[in-house]
Amino acid sequence: MMSTRDLIFTQIRQSLKRPELDENARQQLESRIASPPVFERPAVGADLTTKFFYQLEKVVGTHDTISTLTDLPFAILEFLQQHQLPKELVVDRSFQPLSWPPRLSINYRAAQANDVTSITQAFAGIAETGSVVLISSPASPTTLNFLPENHLVVLKQVDLVAHIEEVWKKLRLQAMPRTVNFITGPSRTADIEQTIQLGAHGPRRLHLILVKK
């Protein structure tokens, strides 16, 4: 039985009056997808972490560094206390095995309109732009990235790459997720009197926690 995807492409081909690809053309396309050409890219330097933090600060993002993932609950508690935020969080379910302090109220679900702070796991960080890449999954609904005013993103240092192209190469090693979000700093707009306003269409704060190991 033909899949929905194959059915859609078959109908597009028929409407364009294009025949099926011959084997040579198919191999050329598959080779290009597997090893896409790389064009000129900006210099980043050998120290990706320093470059990434520099670019993140330029877009009003903040950051912290912890040694291992077990330190994460305490880093989050410190952030909440520093900004006088409620101790109730909506959290990516991949962090469920961690030992969370009883002072924190942890909810593993999609974000709702009244949620203040969310915690998500980044798929990658891009030193070139200071962006984080987040992918949707049953453990991490996309609402966690956009609804709460405070978005805390956890990035493993091993997942930090130099350029955007490396993210797509990394994504092709797995099943493509339904949603891929490239996020560069907190939400902002200058629509009102050409003055930058944070949190207009999403989180007011983007705080990144880099995990060394």
Primary descriptors:
single chain, six-stranded parallel beta sheet, Rossmann fold, four-stranded mixed beta sheet, 28% helix, globular, 213 residues
Protein model, in words:
The structure is a single chain. The protein is α/β, with parallel strands linked by helices. It has one domain (47-211): Rossmann fold, CATH 3.40.50. It has helices at residues 4-16, 23-34, 48-58, 72-82, 143-146, 164-171, and strands spanning 62-66, 88-91, 105-107, 117-121, 124-126, 131-135, 150-156, 160-161, 180-183, 188-189, 197-198, 205-211. The strands form 3 sheets. The chain has a 6-stranded parallel β-sheet, sandwiched between helices. The protein has a 4-stranded mixed β-sheet with strand order 8-5-6-9. It has a two-stranded antiparallel ribbon with strand order 10-11. Strand 10 and strand 11 form a beta hairpin. The longest helix is centred in the first third of the chain and has 13 residues, at 4-16. It starts with a helix and ends with a strand. The model has no long low-confidence stretch (mean pLDDT 91).
Shape: globular
Number of helices: 6
Tell me the name of the CATH homologous superfamily: NagB/RpiA/CoA transferase-like
Shape-level CATH architecture: 3-Layer(aba) Sandwich
